[in-house]
Amino acid sequence: MATPARCPADRAAPRRLAGPGRLRGGRVARPGPQRGDRVGPSPVDRARPGSKHHVIVDRHGTPLAVTLTGGNRHDVTQLLPLLDAVPPIRGLRGRPRRKPRRLYADRGYDFDKYRRLLWKRDIKPLIARRGVAHGSGLGKVRWVVERTFAWLHQFKRLRIRYERRADLYHGLLELAWSIICLRKLRLQI
C-alpha cells in the first residue's frame, strides 16, 4: 500500500525570525532576563551562564547556611552573609552559640579586610595565604566542605541548573540540605 501524498497544507509553517524571547536554532536568541536571576557568566566554563552554591558547615559536614549567587560572583562576597545566616546552635547548657569560634577557609577568602572583620566578630580566621606553597595543613579540615559538596551533587537536579526562577532552585537546594541532614541523623541513631 502506498503512503498518501503530502499536500502543501500539511507542511510545517515557515520559521519566524528570532526576536527577544524566541528560539533560534534551539537556543534563546538574546540572553537576558529570560535566563533567570542569580545567574552569571562562569569564569571557568567559557562564560556559560551558571550559579554558585556558597555553604558554611560545621566540623562534621552538617550544612548550617547556604546561599546562591551568579557564577561570576567572588566567594568572599558571601562570607559575612553566610555567617549572619547561621542559626543559633544549641549546646548542653547556656545560651545558644550564634557564631563559630574558628573559621577555616581556602585561598579564595584571603583578604585582610575580611580577616579584620572576622577578628571584630571574635572569630579566629584560619585562612590559607595566597602565594604560599601548599602544605598549610588546612586540607585536613577543608575536606569536610568538599565532601558536603559531593553529597549535594548526588542530587542530579542540582548539578546543572535548569530552573529559571532562583526561588525554586533555592527551594530545591534547601530540600537537598534537609535530606542530607536527615541522612546524617539516621546514621547517628
From TrEMBL:
GO biological process: DNA transposition
Annotated segments matching region Disordered: 1-52
Biased composition (Low complexity): 14-33
InterPro entries recorded: Transposase_11
Domain of life assignment: Bacteria
Domain Transposase IS4-like residue range list: 44-178
GO molecular function, one term: transposase activity
NCBIfam families: transpos_IS5_3
Name of the protein in its database record: Transposase
